[in-house]
Design goal:
About 70% of the residues lie in helices and about 0% in strands. The chain contains 8 helices and no strands. The termini are far apart.
């Protein structure tokens, strides 16, 4: 999917450059309306790919959350300790490594902001969209509906549904747990979780240090 997004985004960037060249004095556009229509087509395609990328990121998070919850329930019923080793393995899998996808999302948003600065509704990042729905505004305006089209609206609604589910999973727990969904994805948009900076590594390191302190002889 990421490869497909890279190709599609590059094609859109090339289309943008061609439109700029045609509008730079060559007079290839028959009228201003033709130019506006071409730019609107590009905008719709940018909005579509942006929505698909954000949706894929959210589904990646939901998949991980589901696995963590299954392992938690299994450990609780059996008294086992499978969650830690399984989670460490999952952190290295492609479906949870969203750093390249995050870069593509930001690049897409940068193009939208540059080309359509007055169209704020299409440059919503995941945080902005999440905040708007925390304020209980589930309705999609008629203006947004007419601008995005049916296909984009389906992506838009699916993205919002995934975000609502993620927001519920990210609610703070009464007790701290480094393997909880909210802890692991607290800084998802700023950095990708890796073996070096994962909460698992920090937790294990702290545990080792505390064990070392416990084995030291008391000072007299």
């Amino acid at each position: 999917k990421e490869e497909d997004f890279v190709i599609r985004l590059q094609e859109l960037k090339e289309r943008i450059e061609k439109v700029k060249e045609r509008n730079g004095g060559d007079g290839e556009f028959a009228s201003e309306s033709e130019f506006s229509e071409e730019m609107m087509d590009i905008r719709r395609d940018l909005v579509t790919i942006h929505g698909e990328m954000v949706l894929l990121k959210n589904y990646s998070s939901l998949n991980f959350a589901g696995l963590v919850k299954i392992l938690k329930k299994y450990d609780k019923r059996t008294g086992g300790l499978l969650r830690l080793p399984f989670t460490q393995v999952v952190l290295h899998q492609p479906f949870f490594t969203t750093e390249p996808l995050t870069r593509l999302v930001r690049e897409c948003e940068a193009n939208l902001e540059l080309l359509f600065p007055s169209e704020a509704e299409v440059v919503e990042s995941s945080n902005t969209m999440s905040t708007s729905h925390e304020n209980h505004s589930p309705r999609i305006s008629a203006e947004t509906s007419s601008t995005l089209g049916d296909e984009n609206l389906d992506i838009y609604r699916s993205t919002l549904a995934a975000m609502r589910a993620i927001r519920g999973l990210r609610k703070a727990s009464s007790t701290y747990n480094p393997l909880s969904f909210s802890s692991l994805l607290k800084n998802e948009d700023d950095e990708t979780v890796t073996a070096e900076n994962s909460p698992n590594s920090t937790d294990l390191q702290s545990k080792d240090e505390s064990e070392k302190e416990d084995t030291r002889p008391p000072s007299h």
